[in-house]
Amino acid sequence: MSLARNILSGKPDVDAKKLTAGQFIEADADVILSNDITTPLAIDAFEKHSEGRIAYPERVVLVADHFTPNKDINSAEQVKKVRNFAHRHGVKFFDAGCGIEHVLLTEQGLVVPQDIVVGADSHTVTYGAMGALASGMGSTDVAAAWMTGKAWFKIPEAVKIVLNGKLGEYVSGKDIILYLIGQIGVDGALYKGLEFTGQALKELSLESRFTIANMTVECGAKYGIMEVDDKVIDYTEKRAQRPYSPPPAGYSIETDKDFDDLMEIDCSQIAPQVALHGSPANSRSVNEIEKIKIDQVVIGSCTNGRWEDYVKAAAIIRGKKAFSSLRFIVIPSTAALYSRMVKEGLAEVFLAAGAVMSPPTCGPCLGGHMGILASGERALATTNRNFTGRMGHKDSEVYLSNPEVAAASAVAGYIIAPGKIK
Amino acid sequence: MKSEKDKFIIKGRAFKFGENVDTDQIIPARYLDTSDPDVLACHAMAGIDEDFSKKINPGDIIVAGRNFGCGSSREHAPLSIKAAGIGAVVAQSFARIFFRNAINIGLPIIEVKDFKAQSGDELELDLKKGKLKNKSSGEKYSFPSFPGFLQNIIQAGGLMERIREESKKGE
Questions:
Q1: ipTM computed for the complex
Q2: Using one digit for the tens of pLDDT, what is the confidence trace for A356-365?
Q3: For the whole prediction, is pTM greater than 0.95?
Q4: A3-268 maps to CATH 3.55.10.10
């Protein structure tokens, strides 16, 4: 049975016979997440239609991370509305600077394997790396889940993705997911559920797995879920705020035939990737692209803002300087990561290289603040999207890569493979 | 006030867009600092055409290719389109979060794979009968009705309305 259907069939009020592709079900959400952009709309819907009582306040998490620290008066008003709502209803609220939601929730132990997580944020799929069934939805879905504890799902076709092969130098989760999106396109997994298994998955760090799961939405997937192994259990044990029951040891979909489609990826053939401007599907080997001059490099985000990401970037740029005319922006994803970067010397490495270190925020990733591009400017970012106007002016360009390629390119002033900088 | 029958008929001009129109183009992030539908309406499709909202008459129809609404989960995207007066969106396919957001807030969306129209064509849509007519070209199309689960949400006027109706029934 697929990982997702296994989770759903164990939930109360779910009819296991209805778990075939195309069927509609309603299921209890264990975590109901929203942020400073999506929560205000949910509050409007909730206050208009409900009697003002949240069914399960302990499941609700609100994070102010997109336009925070408040970038202007309107953003301040939105966050105030969210903060007041949180206090009124006694739900968890993480204010400015606590962290980027999808890094923060795992760090804080608020998500555990086998959870159903619904979030008014498309990158809610990130929690699939911990074996949770996690899907991005809208503000009205969140308002409905506050009211009833439930969300509606259309059961998607399940696609098994087997990751094989040993990863090459400077290759990590970002390169695997950019490669996959490049192969199938931005709607290649539309309405589908991706389920990951394989020897290469077992060898990947949790950080790399989070990056892969995070970007499954960029090919249209409803979720990107992964098998639970000792690494996930170890990570969860250290943090979990709730009791949890992991799937039985050794439970694997690797030989399961109950899938609508199958893809095998030989990770040994994947070079560090760069997605050229316009779409995450424009990915290719960094070694194949012409010399593309850049004005800004951004390292961070819910996609590549975990400890290993900063360590890898720092290893590349240690003792070097960012190119003279380039803005080098490093965004620690959570307050705890920021503190660790200071304590363990990473902050000094980046600052010595000429970095601007911002407080934890989604900021430039979505063209919010803290690094907006002017017309004609180009950025290389470890973020997740590079559609027209994503980081600023509609005539600016965004390229996507892993943290090592980003750090090397910050030194060179143009996009370059990490092994090639002097 | 529209009669019960007229509620399902949408007539307007086509505004044509391409494939993979993402939410950064439908409503760029710089306009996400409000949840007021009237303000959001002014910025519908602003990532492609800043003046879009000034050009449309109530009932006009957005026509697009594959994967309309991909990208972020921002419900501001379908909300801005609906509040701007767009009567429906016809596309070859929709990104899944945009799809559910549109259903949840009551913006009619229709998937028609082979639909042909140019910007400015006069269109007529009958949601109940599943008929779409391009009056300018004379071509007619049909589309299947939504599954029962979604019909219930649509007929109630949105997800919150459906939940409220059900809770009243349960009392």
A1: 0.94
A2: 999 999 999 9
A3: yes
A4: no
